[in-house]
Amino acid sequence: MMKPTHAMPTMMKPTRARHARSVGPFRRAAPPGAARSTPFVLLLAGALLVAACGPGDAPDPDGAPADRDASAADAFVPPRDADVFLADLRWEGSGPPGIGDPVNVSRRPGYDNQPWFLPDGSGIWYTAVDAHTGQADIYRYDLAVEEVTRVTMSSPESEYSATPLPDGSGISTIRVEADSTQRLWRFDADGSDAAVLLEDVAPVGYHAWIDDSTVALFVLGDPPTLRVADLGTGGARVVAEDIGRSLQPIPGTRDVSFVQRHPDGTATIMRLPGDGGDPVPIVEAVAGGDFHAWAPDGTILMAAGAVVHAASPAETRTWTPVADFSRLGISISRLAVSPDASQIALVAEPAALDLPTN
Question: Whole-structure pTM over 0.85, yes or no?
Answer without folding.
Answer: no
